[in-house]
Amino acid sequence: MGGERKRIVFDQNPIHTDLTGLIEQAQRNEFSLATFKPEKIIEVVVAETEREWSKEKLILLKAKAKQLSFFQTEEEVRREFSVVDKLPYKFFYRFRDKKGREAKLIIEDWEIGMLYWNCLKNSGGDEQKAVSKVKEKYFDVFSKRDIYLFLGTTKQFHGWAKNPFVIIGVFYLPHEPQLSLF
Length: 182
Known about the structure:
Layout: H1 2-10, E1 15-16, H2 19-27, E2 33-36, E3 40-48, H3 55-67, H4 74-80, E4 89-96, E5 102-106, H5 110-122, H6 127-141, E6 146-153, E7 165-173
Parallel strand pairs: 1-2
Antiparallel strand pairs: 2-6, 3-4, 4-5, 6-7
Helix pairs in contact: 5-6
């Protein structure tokens, strides 16, 4: 099962292990999406962030929603447009690549947000327990797996930032047993 998933995901895409080379290619505008295999996940870092969406962002989103709905009435747009709760924490992976370079990248994968909300609900609203459960899964559980990070650049940082990548997905498989030569 794991081998088939791996084949489907990786057959057409190279797996990068050198973060420096990957960043250089992104800065030359050669690509903005990559599959990256960290040598070692060092830790999951958690940082508190604003708990509410800024009014400016909400106004901008509502304006964009109106523009995208040329064939809808304002009432239809209002019914369909809803704002999700803002995640009060940012989650990062700190890892090392094949050449020993360490990096810390934010995990922008929607799954980590949903995991946090589910853990918060299951812990009776205790944020510290929820954060602990997220860290447990993303570090303790995933570190024991064959882990790959799907990286993407953002428009804001593409082409000029020291490291323009964010983690847009985490792909993990059970380690495949190595065959013995004897």
